[in-house]
Amino acid sequence: MADPAKRLVDLSHVIEHGMVTYKGLPAPLICDYWTREASAALYEDGAAFQIGRIDMVANTGTYLDSPFHRYEQGADLAQLDLASLATIDGMAVRAPHAQGLAIDAPDVAGLEVRGRAVLFHTGWDEHWRTDAYFTDHPYLTAAAARLLVQKGAKLVGIDSHNIDDTRGRTRPVHSILLAAGIPICEHMTNLGGLPDEGFRFSAVPPKIAGMGTFPVRAFAELASAA
């Protein structure tokens, strides 16, 4: 039975057939593997079932990066501790993209992030499924990432195309956070539906060995009065 004192806020994009999450990566192909019509002939009580099939790269929709995504010896999805992914004390950091794309060390210097999921709300998700989403998007700087590590963040998320600046050919924020064992959740949405603090955050991927990234159903649990 649902707890009436709690409410859930969905922070994930819907994964749809043919959508593009990251230019240059293939869109997901979603179809029936077993149709209801075909299965109906196998049962005598009117039952029919659908079994779906999806062909996609791991970086699709709202997804989580584990250290293995960047480092061969880093923890893969199956090795992540559930405590690092589920019901984490969360905080939303407001960084409107209209006020600048770079989220730098001064923007996080005064935050109490230790043991928390730090979710950067830029509002860039308003461009989801448009060409504008892929370029000149908000990002963290290397200095901000180093400070988040020093201050003990547990997970870092953003509602943008990438947590790094993709205009260059380096990815320092991924390198710094994942080297410290801090998972990254990208392509989030609806962070404006969260309070600044006072919620629990979860983003749990399947327990897959040998993969470093996979879509998640990211969500926050709020007290009903929040």
UniProtKB/TrEMBL annotation:
The keyword Hydrolase applies. SUPFAM superfamilies: Putative cyclase. Its EC number is 3.5.1.9. Transmembrane segments: none annotated. Gene3D superfamilies: Putative cyclase. One of its GO terms (molecular function) is arylformamidase activity. It is an enzyme of class 3 (hydrolase). Keywords: Hydrolase. GO terms for biological process: L-tryptophan catabolic process to kynurenine. Pfam families: Cyclase. This is Kynurenine formamidase, bacterial.
